Amino acid sequence: MNNNINILVVDDEETIVDVIEAYLKNAGYNVFTAYDGKEAISIFNNENINLIILDLMLPDISGEEVCKIIKNEKDVPIIMLTAKINEDDILNGFNLGADDYVVKPFSVKQLIARVSAVLRRVKDLSSSPILSFNNGDLIINLESHEVKKNNKLITLTRSEYNILLTLSENIKRVFTRNELIDRVMGEDVDVFDRIIDSHIKNLRSKIEDDSKSPKYILTIYGVGYKFGGNKDD
């Protein structure tokens, strides 16, 4: 059972909220509901929310803005619901820190499966030891999900963090873009190759001394990406 996990569902369409709530409760989750951005932020600030299902088209504050506000407070996983299918809109959502994207109309059963997948990835990431590279230049604390560069804490979105973790735990392996999508976002997520490139660009700007001449996130032309750091003993 999942009755220690609190999920916040945010959508201004009451029918959609009711259906998602029923499926989540049937799967054993505790469910909180909100029908606009202000109500969602209020619930988030007063409850221990473990995951948010967030519609982008809200009547007061946009879903993107709600996502930005919440991610600035706590790196809680967010699955965005949207009728938007424009690639740039989806890229923008991931850049704001969304962990998954579901386009309306959608299968509620598939949405629940994605909830389970995101929560499973979060749980898996929390049980590993500290990783240190290049004599402590880059440190990843997988218990607290904190990343330090030159002993300074840096802020990564969950997708950026997951990409960094995937590459750094498999130093010698080259990952294609599709493999990174499968590892970081789940095999059933239909996204574009450009999303990985966008995350890589943002990640490099945060962890590299020179993002144009990276030493950690290396491009293997015609194939994908690999990790270039040296692991400390």
Provide structural commentary:
- This protein has about 230 residues and is of the alpha/beta class.
- The chain folds into two domains: about 5-125, Rossmann fold (3-Layer(aba) Sandwich); about 155-225, Arc Repressor Mutant, subunit A, CATH 1.10.10.10.
- It contains eight helices and twelve strands.
- It has a five-stranded parallel sheet with strand order 2-1-3-4-5, with helices on both faces.
- The termini are far apart.
- The mean pLDDT is about 85.
Short account of what is shown:
Residues 6-119 form the Response regulatory domain. Helix content is 41%, strand content 21%.
Secondary-structure blueprint of this entry?
Elements: E1 6-10, H1 14-26, E2 30-34, H2 37-46, E3 51-55, H3 63-73, E4 78-82, H4 87-95, E5 100-103, H5 108-125, E6 130-133, E7 138-141, E8 146-149, E9 152-154, H6 158-168, E10 175-176, H7 177-185, H8 193-207, E11 217-220, E12 224-227
Parallel strand pairs: 1-2, 1-3, 3-4, 4-5
Antiparallel strand pairs: 6-7, 7-8, 8-9, 10-12, 11-12
Protein name: Stage 0 sporulation protein A homolog
Keywords: DNA-binding, Phosphoprotein, Transcription, Transcription regulation
DNA-binding region: 128-229
The tally of domains stands at: 2
Radius of gyration: 18 Å
Number of contiguous helices: 8
| CATH architecture descriptor of the largest domain | 3-Layer(aba) Sandwich
**CATH topology label of the largest domain:** Rossmann fold
Low-confidence stretches: none
Number of separate strands: 12
- H/E element order: EHEHEHEHEHEEEEHEHHEE
Give the DSSP E fraction (strand runs of 2 or more residues): 15-25%
Shape: globular
| CATH level-1 class of the largest domain | Alpha Beta
Distance between the termini: 39 Å
SSE class: alpha/beta
Residues in helix, %: 40-55%
Sheet of most strands: 5 strands, parallel
CATH superfamily of the largest domain, by name, is Response regulator
Average pLDDT score? 85
Order of strands across the main sheet: 2-1-3-4-5
